[in-house]
Amino acid sequence: MNNRLLRSMKLNQRYLQKLKTRTTLIQAALELMGEEKGLGELSLREVAGEAGIVPAAFYRHFKNMEELGLAVVDDMGGKLRIILRDARKSGAYRAALRGSLDLFFGYVNKNRLLFRFLSREKTGGNKRIRKAIRIEMSFIASELAADMRMPKSIPFSDIEFVSEMIVSNAFNMSNEYLDAEKNDEKELRRIKIKTLKQLRLIFIGGIRAKRIKRKKGGSPNP
């Protein structure tokens, strides 16, 4: 085995270890926040201790707690966009919307602490994290709008506007979903159906309202 290959293997091992520790730090922060605490209530030393590393090692991964919070938002956005993108490949709008919601709530259920964090920080005290959450939701909405198979007569700006409302509503309903008991399948199903109906009404009502406004000579944008 030559020296170049050995160096490459060592670099890969270091990278994987760094990635593992980074993930451990993020999970430690989420665990410490649990259902109630905000990111601002945690200390760097507290998170490092929960992750099993010395406080100085924290700085190899994040400059401060704010940067850790931003990483949580970024990871969520990337993973969720991939999940929902795959669901929308199924085709027709109705089937894709239902499939996307099933996967969305499945992701919420598997990442309960993450979505509790998002719910709190979306209106929390850190401006950069609030902005990062809005940006990620906007990215999700833009991809949803781009994937919708709509008549060419409907401007993309209208579809994007409605998509933003759909995404915002879905994230809001995730709070109700998390408040339900994990094993209460009847209640969880009720919330899913309720959300699906709301999103369809938002879509139909939003597009119709835009069309009516244009017919009356108004601007298509709010």
TrEMBL record:
NCBIfam families: PRK11202.1 (NF008402)
Gene3D superfamilies, per database record: Homeodomain-like, Tetracycline Repressor, domain 2
Keyword Kinase part of the UniProt annotation: no
InterPro entries reported for this sequence: DesT_TetR_C, Homeodomain-like_sf, HTH_TetR, HTH_transcr_repressor_FabR
Pfam families for this protein: TetR_C_46, TetR_N
Domain (HTH tetR-type) ranges: 19-80
DNA-binding region(s), chain positions: 43-62
Listed GO MF terms: DNA binding
Annotated organism of origin: Leptospira ryugenii
Domain of life: Bacteria
Protein name: Transcriptional regulator, TetR family
Keyword field: DNA-binding, Transcription, Transcription regulation
SUPFAM superfamilies in UniProt: Homeodomain-like
